Amino acid sequence: MNSRIVAALIALLVSTTFAAPAPVYAATSTAKICKTNNTKLGLLTALDCLPVVEERIGGYKRSLFKHWIDANKNGKDTRAEVLIAESLVPVRLSSTGKTVSTGKWLSLYDGETWTLASDVDVDHVVALAEAWRSGAWKWSSARRQAYANDLGVAWTLRAVTDNVNQSKSDDDPTYWLPPLESATCIYLADWVAVKIRWKLTVDAEERQSIRDGWLDARCFALSKPPVVTVKIAP
To answer: What pairing do the DSSP bridges indicate for beta strands 92-93 and 157-161?
Structure first.
């Protein structure tokens, strides 16, 4: 075979084997989309929006995050507002009209359905202690209160089975994922969306665990994989 043809074939093989795939977004546009409200991102792209920083250890107290406030002064606190919003049927309020007694809640984490509000916790998807370790340690009290009572999007707070929420504690996806495997993809997308919304960070192990969890669950192969919606907190 002609030596020029051989050389050309070798060059073509090398370029085909080792050429890096073109990025979906250039570096400059990636920074922009991470801050543009209502942008919808694939999880692995969204993960690149989060700075990788070692966690802040120590100093956390739950009292630093004033939660379950009545922000709009309608007589119902944040917990009640979430229970009302997520109930599949009209709720029944207590005699005071301030708290929820009954409704119907489908818990994402385990697929169980509950009708008594006492069986349901309202979970901070990214726990308060995790938020502290990921950047909230340097926030003002007002900012921490806003985080703890965030009703601005549907994915920061979820009504879930109480003991399942308690088993989660303040763990990140390295140490805890929903026991209902089919909930993994939504949970990971919610987690990343919350951290983008509040400009929190991830540590290296957490980032890898989110990526691995997404790939292991084959979230990308779903007919409609969950997306991460950018919605920056005020």
So the answer is: unpaired
Q: Tell me the β-bridge partners of 160.
A: 121
Radius of gyration of the chain (CA): 22
CA-based nearest residue to 123, from 84, 76, 172, 164: 164
What's the pTM? 0.86
Residue bearing tokens 């007002």: 142
The pLDDT score that the predictor gives to residue 29 is 60
d(CA 215, CA 212): 5
The whole-number pLDDT of residue 31 equals 78
Residue 12 lies in a domain: no
Q: Is the pLDDT of residue 1 over 60?
A: no
Q: Is 18 contained in some domain?
A: no
Does any domain span residue 10? no
Give the mean pLDDT of 108-114.
98
